[in-house]
Amino acid sequence: MPFLRERSGRWSALKIIAFVAALLPASWIAYQAAAGELGARPVTEAIHQAGDWALRFLLITLAITPAQRIFAYPRLVLARRTLGVASAGYALLHFSLYILDQHFDIFKVASEIVLRIYLTIGALGLAGLIVLASTSTDAAISRLGSGRWHAIHRFVYAIAVVAVVHFFIQSKLNTYQPVLMAGFLIWLLAYRALYRRNGEVSPLHLVMLAIGAAVVTAVGEAILYLLTSGVDARLVLLAHFDLDMEVRPAWWVLAAGLAVAGAGFWRQKRARQRPRAPRISRGAVSGAIQVQSGS
Ligand code: HEM
Asked: Helices marked H in the chain — which ranges?
């Protein structure tokens, strides 16, 4: 398919929007670098921002298929490839900045990747994203064939898990963002499992999915605190209801999930309200057949 165009050759608004959206964070990082606004350790800050966007674009890419189905908008698929390639692009930028941070000492970079588990995991994720991006061209898709292409691209879920684990391990003290990203990923994985089992996911299922993903996120966060800092898991769970505390990630997962379920209900209602095609009486049909056959 030509760049930013549909198969028919027409410009695709969705592809253009996805492309511009993909460039915005990079432009923002470049602007902050040029204006000296990246703080005391600009390269480290740029590494963090690029890593964040690699993961965000990955999760947004995974959200395209559920969104297509829930909003009954199949054209959304036009944006998917651009968003997926954007994730790989930001992961490459992230890695390149890490090499810059190590003063281009490739041996040091390689040994760090081998010795530090979170870097080894990150490297696995990066390798996976590069494979997916390089097999996303029209030529690669037709060379591989649909079956093999889908088999390879199914690994995108494993790559997302790997990326979230990398995020967790490097976070040290503040695990708010990794827990949030893990919560969204849990929703995406559970949606996929439900769809594969039932063939469709009703708005009511989406409500249960939102609640389930939020509960797993909250319990997961409590267990994480217990294992990493020995904090009583019950206190972390109670903190979810403490209005003086920061809104916990599980609430955002619930809010996003319920918003999606609300959209599902709205779409279902609209589909029911849509005027049906006028019924044609049996007599009229037989009359039409007679006219067509000339009898
Ligand atoms: C060879 C591959 C990779 C290397 C060498 C690498 C290296 C790093 C480093 C050095 C950090 C900062 C750690 C710190 O400051 O203590 C980091 C953080 C991070 N990385 Fe990676 N990474 C790799 C791959 C990936 C991939 C594939 C993704 C996502 C798809 C990713 C997402 C992140 C995220 C989200 C953060 C945290 C950013 C933040 O704290 O805001 N990384 N990585």
From this structure: 13-34, 42-70, 77-101, 106-115, 117-134, 138-153, 156-171, 176-198, 203-229, 233-239, 249-273, 282-293
* Minimum CA distance residue for ligand 1 atom 43: 51
- State in Å: Cα 121 to ligand 1 middle: 9
CA 59 to chain centre: 2
Can you tell me whether residue 279 is helix, strand or coil?
coil
Pocket of ligand 1 (CB under 6 A): 44, 47-48, 51-52, 54-55, 58, 91, 94-95, 98, 113, 119, 122-123, 125-126, 129, 163, 166-167, 170
pLDDT in tens, 189-226: 999 999 999 988 999 999 999 999 999 999 999 999 99
Q: pLDDT tens-digit profile of 146-205?
A: 999 999 999 999 999 999 999 999 997 889 999 999 999 999 999 999 999 998 899 999
Contact 227, 175 (CB under 8 A): no
Q: What whole-number distance in Å separates Cα of residue 110 and Cα of residue 99?
A: 10
Q: How far is the CA of 10 from the centre of ligand 1 (A)?
A: 38
* pTM: predicted TM-score of the whole model, two decimal places: 0.91
Interval 55-95: pLDDT, tens: 999 999 999 999 999 999 999 999 999 999 999 999 999 99
Take atom 25 of ligand 1 and give the residue whose Cα is closest.
122
CA–centroid distance, 142 to ligand 1, in Å, is: 33
